[in-house]
Amino acid sequence: MERERDHYRCLVDVALEVIGAKWKPLIIHHLCRKPHRFRELERKVPFITRKMLIQHLRELERHGVVSREIRPARPVQVEYAITEYGQTLYPVLQALSDWGKLHLEKG
Predict the structure, then answer these.
(1) For residue 2, what pLDDT band results from cuts at 50, 70 and 90?
(2) DSSP 8-class letter at 95
(3) How many domains does the chain have?
């Protein structure tokens, strides 16, 4: 475990490894509101490619931020939801949103 920790420069670096991709904050934002199926997330996050959405969801799931539930149906439905741990990111995203508003008003 110590070896893994050695490659981080600071704690912000740790956080950015989990949420620091272009689309991850938007995915987390939508999942904080309610669970979504894959196609719903595709529509909610404009311009993201299917490959990138899959990759980001897998990474967020690996970090324990997002859960994936397969629902028995025809066709099979997969639903993504924010985990309890992932909910701890809500204040972070709210702060980013507030700063974005401030930045728009500034300019």
Answers:
(1) very low
(2) H
(3) 1
Q: Which 3 state secondary structure label does DSSP give 65?
A: coil
- Tell me: the pLDDT tens digits for 3-12? 466 677 899 9
Strand order in the sheet with 66-71: 36-37, 77-82, 66-71
Decide: residue 38, CB within 10 A, 0-12 exposed, 13-18 middle, 19+ buried: middle
Residue 15: give the domain boundaries.
Answer: 2-106
Which CATH number goes with the domain that contains 76? 1.10.10.10
Provide the 8-state DSSP code for 82.
E
Structure tokens at 103: 């930045």
Backbone angles phi and psi of 9, in degrees to 5: -85, -35
- List, in order, residues 6 or more apart from 48 with CB less than 8 Å away: 23, 42, 56
- Return the percentage of the chain with pLDDT > 90, whole number: 81
